[in-house]
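Try this one yourself first.
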């Protein structure tokens, strides 16, 4: 651990805190340790939102459950205005009721 800390340019206590998952460790320290370990590509995985399952689930919960477009709302309003109010039969020009 001491050798890793020296090569990463940080203290052994910072490396120990990083191993424990302490959120107070700077992201730069994490990046330095990943470079020393040859895992720099993992840093890109940390910032890729497509791989953040928890974040995606939380964002999905905030989405509206159901939405209508403005055009759909207008069509519904026009259909409501054109429908008979008293429940009478609608007769087409050919004379068939339905």
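Now uncover the answer:
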């Amino acid at each position: 651990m001491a050798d890793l800390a020296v090569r990463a340019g940080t203290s052994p206590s910072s490396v120990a805190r990083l191993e424990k998952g302490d959120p107070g460790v700077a992201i730069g320290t994490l990046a330095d340790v990943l470079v020393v370990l040859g895992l720099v590509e993992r840093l890109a995985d940390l910032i890729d939102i497509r791989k953040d399952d928890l974040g995606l689930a939380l964002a999905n919960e905030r989405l509206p459950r159901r939405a209508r477009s403005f055009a759909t709302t207008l069509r519904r309003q026009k259909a409501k205005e054109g429908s008979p109010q008293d429940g009478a039969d609608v007769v087409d020009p050919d004379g068939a009721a339905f």
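Discussion: Residues 2-62 form one domain. The chain is about 60% helix and 0% strand.
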